[in-house]
Amino acid sequence: MTKDENFFEKKMDRREFLKKAGIGGAGLALGLSGASAFFANKEHGSKQIADGQEEISFYGKHQAGITTPMQKNIYFVVLDLRTTDKNELIQLFKDWTDYSQKLVNGELVKKDGSNALLPPSDTGETVGLNPYRLTLTFGVSASFLTKLGLEKKRPKLFRDLPAFPKEQLREQYTGGDIVIQACADDEQVAFHAVRNLIRKGRIKVTMKWSQSGFAAIGDRMETPRNLFGFKDGTANVTTEKDFDKVVWADSNDWMKNGSYMAVRRIIMHLETWDRTNLQEQENTFGRYKESGAPFGKQNEFDEVDLSLLPVDSHVRLAKEVDLPILRRSYSYSDGIDPKTGQFDAGLLFIAFQKDPDSFVKIQTNLGADDKMNEYVTHIGSGLFACFGGVKEGGYIGQDLFE
Ligand code: HEM
């Protein structure tokens, strides 16, 4: 291959490419401030969504991808450590910081020299694509702290999840030391980001489990519906003030400005659900399917009157615990379950909260009595401490290591 024929020889980063194509420009760097609704992001028109032009800064007080209005796609991966050498891991987190900041800006992870006999540093599948609001969110599990001899730094509230009623966890979807959540309004952008981060981490980490997913975000004016056809996320908090109350850890340790992520891979038995009459479906949640309004009310965001909801309905059981969490879940569909011949589909449930105990108490209440249990099975689980945001010049997880 001659120099000119080599695609990457041109060293054209994505931003340059887009400028040349006349569709890039400076992009719109989105801060995370402002009290825009979590899903209904009316400040930004649909044109930017179509162009994928908006960027979300990697640096900030908090990591992006937690209170960021949801994107259309997720690529979620849990990694196992292959080394417990602290310095090697600090280097990895520094490398990931460098890569992440470029990825969310829509640039190549690294520009190569002219040696065509080397593999390109960037795998290349996003050349010509905008950043599509890519966010990268990093966290570690309790086993990460143990393996690195950082047990002493384990915050008191970072306890292991207990066993929950009716769960049927599978080894292949549990455990792991590091989580990376990539969300973007384009599936290939999200996948590319994880692929390149893992490529950089080879030898130090291996993949334990991963899940891609999607959310019906549309033009961000409506709450997305899950695969049961119900609006999902209605009760989420939406303002900075509430995020402080619900999401961001209060502690003054390395989790300052961070959040705890609870993850569940939940199979949804769609065929059973689809045989269920509408009244039963609505009784399952205590909300009307079309409008999303709670029983006895007209509109989606009307206040829930618990006494009007069936005692075993999902919303009643979740709400009566009275401990808010921020849900940021994605649907998945993974082909056909070879044992049943039915859809292998469900929800990659993700919730952020300042104290994992809120999730634990809600799931304990739901696990026992939720009417929805007839239609779902929890098979994967994880709890991760997602660091506070990265300052320019700093690196992911710095406060934990120093
Ligand atoms: C496949 C699994 C699940 C489905 C399909 C589902 C669906 C829904 C739907 C449709 C709503 C009502 C609208 C809304 O406020 O978002 C809701 C509310 C809620 N869900 Fe779930 N959910 C699932 C799993 C979970 C899990 C595992 C938890 C936590 C342990 C949870 C916690 C909540 C909470 C806290 C609310 C809000 C209650 C309120 O304050 O009104 N959900 N869910």
Automatic annotation (TrEMBL):
<comment type="function">
    <text>Involved in the recovery of exogenous heme iron. Extracts iron from heme while preserving the protoporphyrin ring intact.</text>
</comment>
<dbReference type="InterPro" id="IPR019546">
    <property type="entry name" value="TAT_signal_bac_arc"/>
</dbReference>
<dbReference type="GO" id="GO:0030313">
    <property type="term" value="C:cell envelope"/>
</dbReference>
<keyword id="KW-0732">Signal</keyword>
<comment type="similarity">
    <text>Belongs to the DyP-type peroxidase family.</text>
</comment>
<dbReference type="GO" id="GO:0005829">
    <property type="term" value="C:cytosol"/>
</dbReference>
<dbReference type="InterPro" id="IPR011008">
    <property type="entry name" value="Dimeric_a/b-barrel"/>
</dbReference>
<feature type="domain" description="Dyp-type peroxidase N-terminal">
    <location>
        <begin position="63"/>
        <end position="214"/>
    </location>
</feature>
<dbReference type="GO" id="GO:0004325">
    <property type="term" value="F:ferrochelatase activity"/>
</dbReference>
<protein>
    <recommendedName>
        <fullName>Deferrochelatase</fullName>
        <ecNumber>1.11.1.-</ecNumber>
    </recommendedName>
</protein>
<dbReference type="InterPro" id="IPR048327">
    <property type="entry name" value="Dyp_perox_N"/>
</dbReference>
<dbReference type="InterPro" id="IPR048328">
    <property type="entry name" value="Dyp_perox_C"/>
</dbReference>
<keyword id="KW-0349">Heme</keyword>
<keyword id="KW-0575">Peroxidase</keyword>
<dbReference type="GO" id="GO:0046872">
    <property type="term" value="F:metal ion binding"/>
</dbReference>
<keyword id="KW-0560">Oxidoreductase</keyword>
<feature type="domain" description="Dyp-type peroxidase C-terminal">
    <location>
        <begin position="223"/>
        <end position="390"/>
    </location>
</feature>
<keyword id="KW-0479">Metal-binding</keyword>
<dbReference type="Pfam" id="PF04261">
    <property type="entry name" value="Dyp_perox_N"/>
</dbReference>
<dbReference type="InterPro" id="IPR006311">
    <property type="entry name" value="TAT_signal"/>
</dbReference>
<dbReference type="Pfam" id="PF20628">
    <property type="entry name" value="Dyp_perox_C"/>
</dbReference>
<keyword id="KW-0456">Lyase</keyword>
<dbReference type="InterPro" id="IPR006314">
    <property type="entry name" value="Dyp_peroxidase"/>
</dbReference>
<dbReference type="GO" id="GO:0033212">
    <property type="term" value="P:iron import into cell"/>
</dbReference>
<dbReference type="GO" id="GO:0020037">
    <property type="term" value="F:heme binding"/>
</dbReference>
<dbReference type="GO" id="GO:0004601">
    <property type="term" value="F:peroxidase activity"/>
</dbReference>
<dbReference type="InterPro" id="IPR006313">
    <property type="entry name" value="EfeB/EfeN"/>
</dbReference>
<keyword id="KW-0408">Iron</keyword>
